[in-house]
Amino acid sequence: MTTPTRLAERLHDLADDAPHAFDTETDSLWRQGRRDGRRRRAAAGAVVVVVALLAAFATGTALERTGPQPLPVAAGGEQGLPDRFYDPSPWLPDDEGAPGPLVAVMPAERGTWGGGVPAVVGVVASTQEYRFLDLPDVPLDEDLALSPDGTQVAWWTTDGDPNGSVTGYAVYDTGTGEVRRREVESGSGIVAIRLLWADDETLVAQYGPISEVTSGAGTEDGVTEDLVAETWTSAGEPVELPQSQSWLLESTNGNGDVVVVDTDRAVYLAVDVAAPASPVELLPRASVSGSGTVVLSPDGQRFATQASARTLKAQHLRAAVQIGAPEGKLRDLPGSVFTRALVGWADDSTIVGVDEGENHDGLELVRYPVDGGDPEVVSDLAGTLSWDGIRVAGDQLASPVVEAVEPPSPLDPRIVAAAAGGAGVLIIAGGAAAFLWWRRRRVAHA
């Protein structure tokens, strides 16, 4: 009986020595341990989040930078019209040096740290690469002109302010990068009318000195009373065309002739810039749609025009384009019901236009044989790009169609900088949390 009694007494003594719930010192240590565990888990979670964000950022940047890249064509390789035109990124990589002959140019916005500025992008004929051209003083929303061989680009220039008045025009050599400028003497700037290349070497510019400035809807527009049309080559000074006060430039065949509207007689004329005193009458102004134009074939023997609204109504939309000859009758161009603009002639028997198709599902560049045959779709547009500002080199209109190369789309460096700054803040915060956890742990174990 003594053994059980001693065992009970011993158990009772052990129970008296065990910690109780109301033991404040033991309870404090238990809570401290719980807090330390939560801190360790929070610090570990912060580190995981930071690492995950950095990995995602690095992966996204790498994928963005490794997008489609233009592949150069070997020397003497085939050049041609791309089967698609793309809307270039404002952050295209900067490429040094002249690009060489271009297949097309288009107005664009160039990204800077302070915002977008007007610029010009060229599509290199040999690689289909999209490149910003080093053109100074490009104004906002003004015309461009590309020579038929793609070696010279003409544009209107300002005094340095993209929103300021136009003060002249300039020519960029795509082979050398040289820029020639023509500054027009005018106190308030000039009204820019049209730039056209009559041939590979002869630029035709039409403008008028600003005589009055009108304001409305938050904008200012210049008004001119005196029109000037002049030719300019690299060989000398500009030469004014006769009767330029009543002529309005319309188009060029790239072979020495331009089409003008004689506003006094309300007719279209074909003018040989080498012999401008003997223009050839083409057709009355009323025969052409209000938004249409007239384009002359390379040999000057035929022209294409967009029919007037009256003609289209009478024909019940059988054709939007008509073919004619000086002092001849107009005839319909088959397959042109949905043609919305004329670009030029690929050769003496093929006209090139912009067609929106029967389903109106996008604009396409189409070649129409004028003497019979099926139209050929050449190029289409990606995204929301418009044909309005694209200028294709005339010599390329008859070229083979080649596969386009989508230009790269680099990340906006401002977003990259902001993301890098955010990642840096997270790293610092994670490091601070880890340090605090380590310091408290040392204090707790001291």
Short description:
The chain is 22% helix and 33% strand. It has 446 residues and is an alpha+beta fold.
Strand content: 25-35%
Uncertain spans: 58-77
Distance between the termini: 50 Å
- The number of strands is 28
Radius of gyration: 36 Å
Mean pLDDT, to the nearest integer, reads 80
Strand line-up of the largest beta sheet: 2-26-25-24-23
Helix-and-strand structural type: alpha+beta
Indicate the overall shape.
elongated
Share in helix: 10-25%
Tally of structural domains: 3
Q: What does the largest sheet look like?
A: 5 strands, mixed
Helix segment count?
Answer: 4
Give the SSE map.
Layout: H1 2-17, H2 24-65, E1 81-82, E2 84-85, E3 102-110, E4 117-124, E5 130-132, E6 144-146, E7 152-158, E8 166-173, E9 179-183, E10 190-197, E11 203-216, E12 219-224, E13 228-232, E14 239-240, E15 247-252, E16 257-262, E17 267-272, E18 280-284, E19 294-296, E20 303-306, H3 309-315, E21 321-324, E22 331-332, E23 339-347, E24 350-355, E25 364-369, E26 376-381, E27 391-392, E28 401-402, H4 413-445
Parallel strand pairs: 1-28, 2-26
Antiparallel strand pairs: 3-4, 3-27, 4-5, 6-7, 7-8, 8-9, 10-11, 11-12, 11-13, 13-14, 15-16, 16-17, 17-18, 19-20, 20-21, 21-22, 23-24, 24-25, 25-26
Helix pairs in contact: 2-4
